[in-house]
Amino acid sequence: MKKTISMFLALVLVCMLSACGTETKTPDTSANSTDNTVSNSSQSEVSSSDTESDSNSQDNAASSRVLIAYFSVPEDVSGADAVAGASVVVKDGVKMGNTEYVSKLIQETIGGDLFRIETVENYPMDHDDLVDQAADEQNDNKRPALSSKIDNLDQYDTIILGFPNWWADLPMPVYTFLEEYDLSGKTIIPFVTHGGSGFSSTIRTISKLQSGAQVSDNTLSLSRNSVADCKDQVTEWAKSLGVSADN
Q1: Tell me, what DSSP letter sits at residue 216?
Q2: Which DSSP string corresponds to 228-242?
Q3: What is the CB-side half-sphere exposure of residue 155 using CA atoms within 13 A?
Q4: Which of 6, 19, 104, 179 is deepest in the core (most CB within 10 A)?
Q5: Do 186 and 157 contact (CB within 8 A), yes or no?
Q6: Which residues lie below 8 Å from residue 84, measured CB to CB, with a gap of 6+?
Q7: pTM to 2 decimals?
Q8: Which of 219, 169, 177 shows the shortest CA–CA distance to 194?
Q9: Residue 5 has pLDDT above 80, yes or no
Q10: DSSP summary character for residue 121
């Protein structure tokens, strides 16, 4: 009888110890819950990043290395903020060539590097003298030597090219630029400032001189009389290019 009672008590003790062992596993379960919380937090961060990516994907602008190359000659003029001459605009007391001003607006909108096409010999700042020299250079099919150089052209895949319309043609320094550099495989996006002639035949000329490049149809033509108030138009056009400079 005593043996039976001892066996019964031993069995009860084993059951009690088993119950205690089960309770000791509870902290591990809590720890796992904490791990799940951390995991959920990480998933939340990923979701946030995904949301940003989705938001960015809604912007159609493709990342690109952009060079904004332009030729511009600001004439000697005076006056308040306005179009003050054939190729100059004055903003906040700062005088800029029309094409220079537009180029800077483009850079403000999409980024990119500015490059001014400059000649060894300076152009006259008087309007009449300037247009006369432009005509003489065109008649002589002259290629003015450039003083500004691009050392790292290979890094750019998009060239936004700005110039004034001189006698229904490209300024001769722009001919020099297009003949000195090989833009094959790049996209050229032209814009022009003019006195009423628009692009004339300059798009065809650019395509001929740079036959290995893609010349965009999305161009911008601005009358010199509207340059001073062109900011909204230029900004809208620059955004429509679908290019966001990563440089």
Answers
A1: P
A2: GG-HHHHHHHHHHTT
A3: 11
A4: 104
A5: yes
A6: 77, 78, 90, 95
A7: 0.73
A8: 169
A9: no
A10: S
